[in-house]
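Supplementary notes for students who missed Thursday's class. We covered one full example, reproduced here. Read the sequence, then the structure, then the short commentary at the end.
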Amino acid sequence: MPKQSPTAAVLAEAAGAAGTGAKGPSLFPVPALPERPSLVLLCGMFAGVGTLHFVHPRSFDEMIPPALGNARTWTYLSGAAELAAAALLAHPRTRRFGGWWAAVLLVAVFPGNIQAALDGGTRGAPAPLDSAVAAWIRLPLQIPLVLWALRHARGCPLRRSRS
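Structure (token representation):
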């Protein structure tokens, strides 16, 4: 059997982390293939919505409960928090924390979703997302979003192999 180069050994170890059966810690904790589409979609959702907070802040301003004060400040803070969630979820070393961050963030913005439903929709959002029906449908959909974030917080991509 020919001797394996150090580069080939690192690549083989990385491939093992992706599910080919190698044991031990990996330099590149690559999630298993079924996990990757879910993670990419979740990161993309947070990155996209976080960006929209800065590109079209007016529609998010409308969702801020008046009791919180300056809506634009809260819009920018929540947008930055969503971008942080995307970044934290994207990197293997921060993914668990990112999952928890995302789950807590989804719970924290829930009052804004309630406000949008009570106001009869999100003014300034594109149709049909501006409707009262969409605002009310969004409320129960927060539950699977929180569970989705928690799935990554519980370490699916970084889970230790059972040997």
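Commentary. DSSP finds seven helices and no strands in the chain. Residues 18 and 32 are 5 Å apart (CA to CA). If anything here is unclear, bring it to office hours.
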